[in-house]
UniProtKB/TrEMBL annotation:
Enzyme class: transferase
Family designation: Belongs to the GART family.
Name the UniProt record assigns to this protein: Phosphoribosylglycinamide formyltransferase
Reactions this protein catalyses: N(1)-(5-phospho-beta-D-ribosyl)glycinamide + (6R)-10-formyltetrahydrofolate = N(2)-formyl-N(1)-(5-phospho-beta-D-ribosyl)glycinamide + (6S)-5,6,7,8-tetrahydrofolate + H(+)
Amino acid sequence: ARIVVLVSGTGTLLQALLDEAGQPHFPARVVAVGADRAKIEGIARAERAGIPAFAVRVADHPDRAAWDAALTAAVAAHEPDLVVSAGFMKILGPAFLDRFGGRVINTHPALLPSFPGAHAVADALAHGVRYTGSTVHLVDGGVDTGPIIAQEPVPVHAGDDEAGLHERIKAVERRLLVEVVAGMARQGYTVDGRKVSIP
Ligand code: GRF
């Protein structure tokens, strides 16, 4: 299966996929990496792996719809079977979801539907939960609202700060994301009764 990964930051989740997808037994290859900003470690990781990387910046487009169309075209050029949003911090618009709907997954550092949005780790910590976790879900038009594919709880330790808890979550996210991608590439997934399979 051909995967395009979307990133916005350090790209450690991307790196986990690159490390696995480079192995002969892994049923998927990362064919390109897309970002919403140019100078980020996630792009550098792709370049080091010799994989095409592109940045589609909102600031370079007259409006959000034009950005959405440009991102859709840039991703479509690589003919992905699956799009993986791994720390991508923009909402994917209608043009993107029309083109790739049902084949876009996202990883979120909380047990959705708890703590959606861009500050999930801080919000969980502030709420005083004893457990938070990692969620991999299908992307729909909402914010972190699509059908859940996989989840794993992560304990909160006394004295945790956001960075420490987020690192503990990301260690789980990396493993869960690789498992879900391998599963989807091998036999597809049934989510909410719907078969999500990729060639
Ligand atoms: C991950 O925890 C992801 O769930 C969240 O941002 C983090 C991205 O980390 N949206 P990285 O850029 O892959 O290191």
